[in-house]
Structure formats: C-alpha cells, structure tokens
Write a structure and sequence with these properties.
mainly alpha; Four Helix Bundle (Hemerythrin (Met), subunit A)
C-alpha cells in the first residue's frame, strides 16, 4: 500500500471514519459544554475542551507551515500553553470544535493533493517531511481521542450506542 493511501486512511479514522477506535467527530457529537469543561477531582487531567484546543494548535500550526503561511501559525510559549482555552462560552466551545474539524479536513485535502515529491519534502520549521509529520499527527490524534473517550466515560457521558 502506498504511504499516501495509508496516511489518508489513518487521517480519516481520527476524524470521521469508524475504525477500531471511535473518530473524534463522533466522540464529540453528544458532549455538552459542561462535559467539555469537566475535569476529574484530582485536577491531573486536561478537560475534553483543552484536549481539542491542543490538537487544534498542532494541526493548525502544521497546516500553516505546509502552506508556507508561517506568519499565520499559532504560537505557544510551551506545550502546556497549547491546552489553553478561549473565553469559556458555549459559542466558543462550538467554534473550537468546528475550527478543529475544518483544519483537520484541510490537512486531509493537502495530503490528498500532494504529489510524491511533496510527501518527502522538508516543511519549513519541521524536522521531518510531510509523510512523517502526518503519521505523527495521526498517532497524536488517536492518543488524545483515547483520553477524550476516557474523560467522557468518567463523567458517565459515553453514550450506550458506543460499543466500547
């Protein structure tokens, strides 16, 4: 199987294609504002919304770098600050989700349009070519989707329609 085809499959499974783990779009569809803000009592875990902000930060930054729009890429002092929330309103929660879905799909389109040489060119500001960065971003997404599912389960918000 060609690397591009494999990456497109991985990328889709992180957002909207049901595989062996639930895609983020499906996981978030029934999450309320209150559930998105919730954290376990020990305070050691990020909230669902913070995790979505973190995913959005890295995907948006990579998209901007790949498109050569580094002046528009998001900035952060450190990794911890990538979990920072905008003003905590229902509207901003909905906007965060929609922006994440949009950026994820734009990266998918970028990957789908890429020629072989694009897949292996070094992107400014990144250590590896597109093929490796997209693989890493997909794995990063799957990891955090698992955390989001766990947070949902801890709240009793995991719908019975989900098999796991």
């Amino acid at each position: 199987m060609e690397a591009k085809t494999l990456l497109l499959e991985q990328w889709a499974s992180c957002l909207d294609k049901e595989e062996w783990f639930p895609p983020l779009e499906k996981v978030l569809e029934d999450i309320t504002f209150e559930q998105a803000m919730w954290k376990p009592a020990d305070g050691e875990m990020n909230s669902i919304w913070e995790l979505v902000c973190h995913l959005l930060f890295y995907e948006k930054r990579y998209l901007m770098r790949f498109l050569g729009e580094t002046e528009n890429e998001p900035q952060a002092e450190n990794n911890k600050s990538t979990f920072r929330l905008p003003t905590e309103t229902l509207e901003n929660w909905e906007e965060t989700k929609q922006e994440y879905f949009y950026v994820h799909r734009e990266l998918e389109k970028t990957l789908a349009r890429s020629e072989h040489e694009d897949m292996y060119r070094q992107v400014p500001g990144e250590d590896y070519p597109l093929v490796i960065e997209m693989k890493s971003l997909a794995m990063h997404g799957a990891y955090h989707i698992g955390q989001i599912v766990l947070l949902s389960k801890l709240q009793g918000a995991w719908a019975r329609k989900h098999s796991s």
